[in-house]
Amino acid sequence: MFDLLRNIEFDQPWFLALLLLLPAILYYHYFYKGTRKQATIRVGHANPGLTGKSLRTTALRFLPLIQLLALGFLMIALARPQLALKEEEVTAEGIDIVMALDLSSSMLAKDFQPDRLEVSKKVASEFVDKRPDDRIGLVVFSGESFTQCPLTSDHRIVKRFLSQLQCGFLEEGTAIGMGLATAVNRIKDSEAKSKVIILLTDGDNNTGYIKPLTAAEMARELDVTVYTIGVGSKGMALTPQGKRSDGSYVFDYARVMINEELLNQIAQITGGKYYRATSEQSLEMVYNEIDQLEKTERDVTTFKRYSDEFPWFLRIGLVLFLLHLILSVTVLRTYP
What distances in angstroms separate CA 17 from CA 14, 78, 242, 301, one per listed residue? Predict the structure, then answer.
């Protein structure tokens, strides 16, 4: 209801100044008339116990209020209230974004709760929600890489693929160059005004037949900006060190080894930026900063349509006047 009232506008608002007369009329009925000296005749009552006011006497005091309300509605009707109906035409120049996510077993390290991978999936999903006008794709890599989800504006699909990611179904290793090259290949034919890759890893390039800096040069040639994120705490972390026969991981403490120099070089070559995320909160801050750096342009054209609402105020005012008239000549009639 309050949203509806905010959309009310007046075509002739100067008539609203008439509402200032209502307090004066109210004063006249309830104060001025009551203070005028009038000759009164005391009439005895057959039953002295009936000293309270009758229902009719109480109703008489409210009769002027009906008249005031009627006047108020008629004055508002004169101002011609209108309901403004807004229509917005939005033209958005979206950005194409490919997220390249490391799925090597070290992403199961316990320095994040419950582990690096689950936190990375959660924060990435929240980032997707903030980019309603962008196409987003998903590339995963460990010892090899492939496109998990092509560029799409259906963010429900992207988030579904994100939620299903797990370590262990790709060849072991960390092929950063392969992951970046796959992401570049996926976005190279995009006609978007801005093309972005967000590469997240927790280690160093140790396999793959494409060097990370070669993939970065490819991205620069295609005007693709790469933001790199090194995820992992500093020092030691409880990290998978091998697998049991049943496929479960054996955990032990190991030093966190992230090639920050390499990730920084990749970002600098492409005009992006390198970030280090040592906790869930810092990772959220990283994605928030990227969200601010890569703003989608939106052109909004607003149209307004108006519908006259004064007939409702006019009808209510006339009904109240009619009610006042009927009551004043019938049940609430007064005699001089």
Answer: 6, 11, 82, 34
CATH number of the CATH domain containing 262: 3.40.50.410
pTM for the model: 0.65
118 in a structural domain: yes
CA-to-CA separations, 158 to 53, 82, 106, in angstroms, rounded:
74, 44, 23
User: What is the model's pLDDT at position 164?
Assistant: 94
Domain that holds residue 163: 91-299
The reply to whether 75 falls in a domain is yes
The number of folded domains in the chain is 2
| Residue 37 belongs to some domain of the structure | no
| DSSP bridge partners of 195 | 96, 224
**Low-confidence residues of the chain, pLDDT below 70?**
1-7, 29-54, 56, 59, 84-92, 297-306, 332, 334-336
Cα torsion 185, 189, 191, 193 to 10°: value is 30
- The one-letter code for the residue type at 330 is T
